Amino acid sequence: MKAKTLLARSVAATFLVVGTSAFAVDVTKQQVVEHYADLAHAVFSDSLSTAKSLDQSIELFLAAPTAAKFEQVKQTWLESRVPYQQSEVFRFGNAIVDDWEGQLNAWPLDEGLIDYVSSDYQYELGNEGAVANIVANKQLTIGATKLDVAKITPELIAELNEVGGSEANVASGYHAIEFLLWGQDLNGTNAGAGERAYTDFVVGKECTNGNCDRRGEYLRAAADLLVQDLEWMEKQWSASEKSNYREELLKDSADNGLRKMLFGMGSLSLGELAGERMKVALEANSTEDEHDCFSDNTHNSHYYNEQGIYNVYTGTYNKVDGSKLEGPGIYALVANNDQKAADEIQKQFDTTRAQVGQLVTAAEKNNQHFDQLIAAGNTQGNALVNETIMSLVAQTASIERAANLIGIDSLNPDTADHEF
């Protein structure tokens, strides 16, 4: 199935009216927190299963590289982003997720740490690892540190994250894999994504850009590490595991659980999505600061971040197998106290989700991807991104209103030091 078809179908499905009112009678705070844990487990389970599919697709490709298999690997990467981006609402408020996610989703990255880059490559000033090129070298010297990188393993690339003290030195995760699959996007704010050739992975005379064997080893190791990390997190939310994070969360007070839920929703909505992922890129007109910058998939990353927030409010999640998980969310608790307010807050969520959905429409229907929307001089594109930011700010105010209505005070969602 083509990416556009898959993602368009998902977006269309999520615009359907959600039957949240079915869970609005006599719902307890503890039931909402328990269902939140069920949502998290379902999302991380889907993230794991799609990562395993990506890993398998990579193995099939590397065994006998072809252009068709390479396109399938990229398609599988795109599909893996759908559930994972919906998991980020669990990051804020749950330290176990926040401390872990950097190894999977850190960005922006100085990709020259990993592989070859263009001669005019721009990287973080002072980053001594920015052009280290692990693929091309079996030994590296970064600052005063000498590193043996002859054997590329999941353990090695995990250790190389932030090597030399720079956060831009990202060696693992979705974006390292994305770079290895697409290569640099050299189109700036013009149309087009990265155009890496499949022959960059063909061992032998047809190899392009050298070191095709090591490039394949890196891709394999990064995919293996992604699966390992997601296996660990899925177990943290599983009801069948003992002494895990889920157990810890449910043993705590329901009010503390709700505070984590609402803080996570508000912080992703405001500081992270509106701020770090949109405002920073827009104000600097910087394609280096867009999220999925190599594949031009940023619009979908933003959309599914918003969908994750929506999932927690409504208590619903559309699983990758086509089934739907439903239960009591924040909406149900608010409705217990004030049905009118619950519906007003729901309306703001619907408005914001539709607004973020316009970024998907701009990319898929009008060929105006996020890197083009943020370009200097693109008045309409800039306005669309800014309107989306403002809608996310309004949504955050509604999240704070919901918190007050169910007795959760001092929410203070993270602004990431942005002013709106």
Report on the structure:
The protein is mainly alpha-helical and 420 residues long. Helix content is 57%, strand content 3%. The strands form 2 sheets. A two-stranded antiparallel sheet has the order 1-2. Strand 3 (316-318) and strand 4 (324-326) form a beta hairpin. The longest helix is centred in the N-terminal third of the chain and has 35 residues, at 29-63. The two termini are 40 Å apart. Residues 1-22 have low confidence and may be disordered.
Shape: globular
Let me know the average pLDDT.
92
Number of helices: 14
Strand content: under 5%
Uncertain stretches: 1-22
Set down the secondary structure blueprint:
Blueprint lengths: L2 H12 L14 H35 L3 H21 L7 H11 L33 E4 L2 E4 L5 H6 L14 H9 L29 H25 L8 H7 L2 H31 L13 H17 L1 E3 L5 E3 L3 H8 L1 H26 L5 H4 L5 H27 L15
Antiparallel strand pairs: 1-2, 3-4
Helix pairs in contact: 2-3, 2-7, 2-9, 3-6, 3-10, 6-7, 9-10, 9-14, 10-12, 11-12, 12-14
Describe the structure concisely.
This protein has 420 residues and is mostly helical. The chain has helices spanning 3-14, 29-63, 67-87, 95-105, 154-159, 174-182, 212-236, 245-251, 254-284, 298-314, 330-337, 339-364, 370-373, 379-405; strands at residues 139-142, 145-148, 316-318, 324-326.
Labels describing this entry:
420 residues; mainly alpha; two-stranded antiparallel sheet; 4 strands; disordered N terminus
